[in-house]
From TrEMBL:
This is Fused response regulator/phosphatase. It comes from Pseudoalteromonas shioyasakiensis. The modification 4-aspartylphosphate is found at D52. It comes from the Bacteria. Keywords: Hydrolase, Phosphoprotein.
Amino acid sequence: MLNILVVDDLALNRRLLTVMLEQQGYRVYTAENGLVALNLLEEHTIDIVLLDVIMPVMDGFETAAIIKERFSQVYLPIIFITSLEDEASFERCLSVGGDDFLHKPFQEVILNAKIKAHSRIRNLSQKAREQNLQLEYHQNQVDREHEIVEHIFNNALENQQSFPKHLDFHLSPAAMFNGDMFLVAQSPLGSLYCMLGDFTGHGLAAAVGALPASRVFYTMVSKGMSVSDIAAEINSVLGKLLPGHMFCAATIIELSSTGKSISAWLGGLPDTYIINQSGEVIRTLESQHMALGILEEDEFERALIHIEVEDTCRIVMATDGIIETTSPHDEYFGEHRFKKVLASKPAISSEQVLERVNKFARGNKQQDDLSLVLLNCLAMSEPEQKSEPLSALPFNFSLSLNSKQIKSTDPVLEVVDVISKVAGLNAHRANIFLILSEAYNNALDHGVLGLDSEVKNQEDGFLIYYQQREEALANLTDALIIIDIRYCPEELALYFTVCDSGNGFSKDQANQQSLAREHGRGLCLLGEVASKVTFNSAGNQVEIYYQLTASSTSSH
């Protein structure tokens, strides 16, 4: 039932309108002037106001203006009841908020038609108001939830600003939440770990994977785990938590405490570059693995790239949002333009690179998250934290592998797991893993299998090399690799000996290595991590001395 307010100073007019309206089933309220009308509007829900123009105390013009000001949230139609005929009066009625006119004497048919027309508009206005209130409520809920989630994210993704000398980075989300993730932490031995990840899509849905991934990352770095361990564990956690269509392309890098070497796991992100002081690319690291969260644990590939670097080098990591930024002509920013920008200015900053990217886009809406990390290969300061006391008990660990075992197993991870359980050694896990993996793979590839790394210098050389490796491994017979590990608590040292049944190699080749080469730096890395590396005269046995104190390790 519509509630109609009749405002007229003449009692006869009020009575006449009341009878006509009540006959149509409307509830009618009456007022003799504008002041009484405003009080009734405060007390009752009125749907339509029939308002006389000329009245004592407060006339229709003044009343209409106040009604429109006070009751503007929902359309409240004002139909002026007037005997005036001049255009100026009509114009003033509209200017103060009038919506329609009704001339005296009243015609019942026209009155009913106008009321029905304006009641329909009021109903639509009320529905729109209700919907707006619901939207406002839900928006407030979403804003509150986003505020909570943003607080959690800001506390979860810690340490990003803790290494200003080493890191220059820029994260620019396409939505409120970033589907890209950048994690940074320092291990107990001083190595700097960085992870740049790009989850499927962008916004909150893409960002949810950052929380479990970050917890795994920080926990494992604090325990001195290797890059491959971290990648494997994050892959396992994301595989269990995320739906099948979600995954995380990622690059995980460990910069040694001396700043002289890096270990990298690359899965699905665009190429990582090593650039010199001038910004020229001197080494390109291509993705070797599938993104995290796709493969099962038994399918996951742990292989790392180990590289020596100079203190003038910078590592450049970026998500695909950079190279896939488009211009108004639908042209990609691309890898070639990205490299050109990096070399356009010595020590270029991430902000300057992003300025060039945005300039190229020329106002095009950002379609994906844009993330760029520039890592300076500088020595790290020693972390201020207590390490677990080293065991006071000496031990020896020896392992002999025949051809069958060499074909069917990769012993490095299992050996590292065993050694890491000794008190105090888990903090050195990453270095122990690097030492064993480099020494064992050198013994297998170049000693037992007799492969020549020079093949890698050819076009598609890596593919040819690994095809040769797979074929040689399948045909392997009568081979032996011996791993011997000795822990001396008095010296706080580990001694590693890896011996193979192969023909050995020329030590001169091991000394002819440079950063520009795509291979052959593994033995140099052993010298970077270990205190001493020696070979027998035949070249088929390596002895490695590793000092367990963080300060001693960081001096090499």
